[in-house]
Amino acid sequence: MLLNSYFYYDVDDAEEINIQKKAYIERIGSGECVAEDIPFFFRSIKHTMTTFLHNGSVEFAKLSLERLTKAIEIILRTTL
Predict the structure, then answer these.
(1) Which of 53, 31, 42 is nearest to 8 (CA)?
(2) Which of 15, 35, 41, 56 could connect to 4 by a Cys-Cys bridge, CB 3.0–4.6 Å?
(3) Rounded to whole angstroms, how far apart are CA atoms 30 and 65?
Protein backbone atom coordinates (compact mmCIF):
# COMPACT_ATOMS: atom_id res chain seq x y z
CA MET A 1 0.00 0.00 0.00
CA LEU A 2 1.11 3.58 -0.65
CA LEU A 3 -0.36 7.07 -0.58
CA ASN A 4 -0.07 8.99 -3.85
CA SER A 5 -1.10 12.58 -3.24
CA TYR A 6 -1.69 15.38 -5.75
CA PHE A 7 -1.65 18.75 -4.05
CA TYR A 8 -2.00 22.31 -5.30
CA TYR A 9 0.81 24.43 -3.90
CA ASP A 10 1.61 27.90 -5.22
CA VAL A 11 4.61 29.75 -3.81
CA ASP A 12 2.82 32.99 -4.69
CA ASP A 13 -0.21 32.27 -2.48
CA ALA A 14 -0.57 34.18 0.77
CA GLU A 15 1.91 32.98 3.41
CA GLU A 16 -0.85 32.08 5.89
CA ILE A 17 -2.40 29.75 3.29
CA ASN A 18 0.93 28.12 2.47
CA ILE A 19 1.69 27.61 6.17
CA GLN A 20 -1.54 25.59 6.47
CA LYS A 21 -0.70 23.60 3.33
CA LYS A 22 2.83 22.82 4.58
CA ALA A 23 1.44 21.70 7.94
CA TYR A 24 -1.04 19.40 6.20
CA ILE A 25 1.65 17.87 3.97
CA GLU A 26 3.96 17.41 6.95
CA ARG A 27 1.21 15.78 9.03
CA ILE A 28 0.39 13.29 6.28
CA GLY A 29 3.93 12.62 5.00
CA SER A 30 6.00 12.74 8.17
CA GLY A 31 3.35 11.78 10.68
CA GLU A 32 0.57 9.51 9.56
CA CYS A 33 2.40 7.70 6.74
CA VAL A 34 5.48 7.13 8.89
CA ALA A 35 3.34 5.82 11.75
CA GLU A 36 1.58 3.37 9.42
CA ASP A 37 4.76 2.53 7.46
CA ILE A 38 3.15 3.67 4.20
CA PRO A 39 5.22 5.33 1.43
CA PHE A 40 4.08 8.87 0.68
CA PHE A 41 4.35 10.18 -2.89
CA PHE A 42 3.68 13.89 -3.14
CA ARG A 43 3.00 15.55 -6.48
CA SER A 44 2.74 19.30 -6.69
CA ILE A 45 0.15 20.67 -9.07
CA LYS A 46 0.80 24.16 -10.34
CA HIS A 47 -2.06 25.26 -12.55
CA THR A 48 -3.64 28.68 -12.29
CA MET A 49 -5.67 30.79 -14.67
CA THR A 50 -2.36 32.35 -15.71
CA THR A 51 -1.25 28.92 -16.93
CA PHE A 52 -4.07 28.83 -19.42
CA LEU A 53 -3.79 32.47 -20.49
CA HIS A 54 -0.06 32.25 -21.26
CA ASN A 55 0.19 28.64 -22.35
CA GLY A 56 2.92 28.25 -24.93
CA SER A 57 5.05 31.32 -24.21
CA VAL A 58 8.74 30.78 -23.49
CA GLU A 59 8.73 33.40 -20.73
CA PHE A 60 5.85 31.72 -18.94
CA ALA A 61 7.50 28.29 -19.27
CA LYS A 62 10.64 29.62 -17.57
CA LEU A 63 8.62 31.28 -14.82
CA SER A 64 6.54 28.14 -14.32
CA LEU A 65 9.66 26.00 -13.95
CA GLU A 66 11.15 28.43 -11.42
CA ARG A 67 7.94 28.47 -9.37
CA LEU A 68 7.64 24.67 -9.45
CA THR A 69 11.27 24.26 -8.42
CA LYS A 70 10.76 26.71 -5.55
CA ALA A 71 7.63 24.85 -4.41
CA ILE A 72 9.45 21.50 -4.44
CA GLU A 73 12.34 22.94 -2.41
CA ILE A 74 9.91 24.30 0.19
CA ILE A 75 8.02 21.02 0.46
CA LEU A 76 11.23 18.99 0.74
CA ARG A 77 12.41 21.21 3.60
CA THR A 78 9.03 20.73 5.27
CA THR A 79 8.89 16.95 5.05
CA LEU A 80 12.51 15.87 5.46
Answers:
(1) 42
(2) 41
(3) 26
